[in-house]
Amino acid sequence: MIITMASVSLDGFFEGPGHDISWHHMDDELHDHINTELATMSAFLDGRRTHELMLQVWPHGDENTDWPQKQRDFAPIWRDVRKIVYSRTREFTEWNSETRREVDPDEVRALPGDNMVGGADLLQTFFELDLVDEVRLYVNPVAIGSGTPFFRKPNALALKGTRAFGVGVVLLTYGRR
Questions:
Q1: pTM, to two decimals
Q2: What is residue 4's DSSP assignment?
């Protein structure tokens, strides 16, 4: 199954202008939940820019004693999970990574287990190819007014569940109709 997990603003933005995500609400409860969910994934499917951002932080993130423990706990999860990076300009092999130049729908559908697709542009490609089975939106209690919209085209989904977190974030889980 292909899953996307994303924090979004009340007005539907994935990130603000200049790729700003400083408005994301996070606490130990939410971080623990996200760590638990991501630890079950067979692979992370990311675009080049998202993978490059992850490379800046997570290979040794558990060594950053200034961070909360739940945040540091994500580093070994990230290191251990297989990563398929879609890039036409770079080759990635470090930290359990492999590179693909194009999205091959048959290859994606054949991936075992649950796989998480991330990155605004790659996600849109997966939507266009009808590869996303489940959408998990972590709606933050803030309207940011502009930025990168999560949905760029209409996409009819069926609500599968909700969960509220103490920090004010609400998880909305949707599947295919």
A1: 0.92
A2: E
